[in-house]
Task: structure prediction
Amino acid sequence: MAVTGSLLKRRRSALRDEVYSTILDMLLGGVFQPEESLSIDGLARDLDVSPTPVREAMVEMEHTGLVERLARRGYRVAPPISTEQIRKLIDVRKLLELQAVDWAYPHAAQLLPELRQAHAEHEVAWQNLEHEKGHLDLAHIRHYFDADWNFHRVIIRYANNSYLESAVDNLAFQAHRIRQTVGEGSSDGAQATAEHHAILEAFASGTREDALAAMEAHLNGVLRRSISDAE
Result:
């Protein structure tokens, strides 16, 4: 009986994770509008599962900031992020990611192969979005977000500070919130990949100051584009 109970628990956990991933793709893909109500029973019907894994997934989803729980009213998609919130978010990313560049730079020779690979994957993901513009596949949108963020995570990982890595990871979903226009068929892929390339080149043949300047220029670009979209 104990073995059977353990197996059922693992299956339930796997189902909850699958439901969570599917709802996350839908949120990042712009399937739902900002502040749209999210019915647990409705999502359960759409996903052909019971309400329980949906409810468990939504509780976990609250921590991302992509959804909100309203007292006695269930869940809704988070409202659009404000320009003030965008500025504050980018300010914190600058503090953390410029420090990550500073600490990672002495390990440039070791990180460069991974950074080149991450950049190549980001470019492929962007080209897929451009090719599919107007009828985007959720998998392509998720791939684009993941590839973009992974470029930054390579640098953060080589900073060799788990506390810094955890702090930046906590901002990942908030970063996605300001770029959900991808779900509507547009992206900043051309600018972002060019800015990432400048960061890559700075690590490959520039100085520490060049790498810091390239990362700051990229984050300033993200800020400028995000505020333009929000307005």
